[in-house]
Amino acid sequence: MKGERNNVMSIAQLAGQPTAKRILQHALRTRKVSHAYLFTGPTGSGRMAMAKAFAKALFCTEGLDDACGECLACRKFEHGNQPNLHIVEPDGISIKIDQIRELQRELAYRSTGAERKIYIMQRAETMTQQAANSLLKFLEEPQTPVVALLLTENGQAMLPTVRSRTQWVPFKPLAPADMLQTLVAEDVPPLLARAAVHLASGLEACRSIIQQNEFAEMRNVVIQLGKDSLSRFTAAMISAQQQVFKTGLGDQPQQLLSLLVLWYKDMIHFQAGRHEALVFIDQVDWIGKHAFGRSADGWVRCMEHTLEAGKRMRAHVPPQLALEQMLIRIQEG
Questions:
Q1: How many CB atoms sit inside 10 A of residue 186's CB?
Q2: Domain extent at residue 182
């Protein structure tokens, strides 16, 4: 890793993944670091962020079970000046044997002192058979103090011989509350973050949604549409036509419908007293006045009508027609 500025959090600062944190921090604390780890879990679960945080902690000279963020090694890591960290990514659709050979050559050079070397391999399951066999030999006979961090969505897709020589570190999908905490800490507008974490799996996908130019406006339109759909049918139809399909919002009807499902779900949350779970928390006064206007089953039917509209759109029904028919069904109860 050379010349690339990094904003790498410590292990403790990362959202969720208590099992992964426990495994890695125990290794640091007891100084029993394995020569190879397999980070396995779904996209968006933070595997790469955890790998960098663990690598930073391994290079740190002052911390016990995490990076201190203050020492020279941590500062070098932050500024992208850590020559003993290597990132391996697929070349096209796979990681090839030439990449493994090049990695082995780089890791074979003696570093100053006894400092360990670390490599992070993304999408490790894409290694060709030759590459995997070459890596296997290297895992069995590392030439210098080396730590391998292999990242994959599916650990079972790795060669059994590779799996057996690594310590598994399981990752689970991040909970919305964990993602919300991280995004708010990044100064993302809380109202947008509360919605995004229920629409996407993983922080990067959430950030991508929030950065959409129309997302804030879409949220506002959904609030208006959600209110009008319950009692002001004509107004709802006009909102759908003028604010959705005559604007750029009509290009993402599925996302709009997903937000609308969250709107109706908020009614159920309010009925159940789960006010902290509200997505549209800024509308709590309006929701409080209308949440008991229908039974919980009634709100579930609203959600079902909305999901059905999404299915019809995917079946090539014109989005405007599908949305208008949904509004009719919601109006009828």
A1: 12
A2: 177-210
